[in-house]
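for the recovery benchmark. tokens below, seq after
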């Protein structure tokens, strides 16, 4: 039987508001004293997370955050849309003013999200950042700060941290 439950974003946000601080403290602690085999344990939990999470009932990432577009992403997507690179950038993107001056969306929700069915209209050529999101299978020590940011934005991240708190903590 499928354990997949539709995501109710309103109740998720309420729940996450109450628990995000303790989850972030937990992530800080685990990052400092990483138990042996942490990434292997997380991989097991991540598999469960995806068996239980239906992103098509959520799309909160595409609704509230922007991906970072690499040069390869922009070229590939512009070509797919039969636009020049400059036209594509001008129409949809802006360059951040600080840091690495990343290319990001001008507005949210993402212009490529179909709000009727939560599907990405450029799925096959979507940015690598989107394809990897929420980065649960990356090395924990390189992504703990990302998970901290995402615990109250991404139900899959929340679920992973919840599982970590009951099954990785204190071992
Ligand atoms: S990756 Fe996270 S925020 Fe995005 S749709 Fe899936 S559960 Fe929702
Ligand atoms: S490009 Fe597609 S997957 Fe990425 S944020 Fe936009 S709608 Fe979501």
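predicted aa per position
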């Amino acid at each position: 039987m499928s354990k997949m439950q539709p995501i109710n974003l309103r109740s998720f946000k309420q729940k996450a508001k109450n628990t995000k601080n303790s989850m972030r403290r937990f992530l800080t602690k685990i990052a400092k004293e990483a138990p042996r085999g942490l990434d292997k344990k997380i991989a097991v939990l991540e598999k469960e997370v995806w068996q239980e999470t239906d992103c098509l009932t959520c799309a909160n990432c595409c609704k509230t955050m922007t991906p970072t577009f690499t040069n390869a992403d922009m070229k590939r997507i512009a070509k797919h849309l039969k636009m020049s690179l400059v036209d594509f950038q001008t129409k949809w993107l802006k360059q951040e003013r600080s840091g690495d001056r990343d290319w990001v969306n001008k507005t949210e929700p993402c212009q490529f999200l179909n709000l009727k069915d939560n599907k990405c209209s450029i799925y096959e050529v979507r940015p690598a950042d989107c394809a990897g999101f929420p980065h649960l299978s990356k090395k924990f020590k390189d992504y703990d700060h990302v998970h901290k940011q995402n615990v109250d934005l991404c139900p899959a991240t929340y679920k992973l941290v919840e599982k970590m708190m009951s099954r990785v903590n204190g071992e």
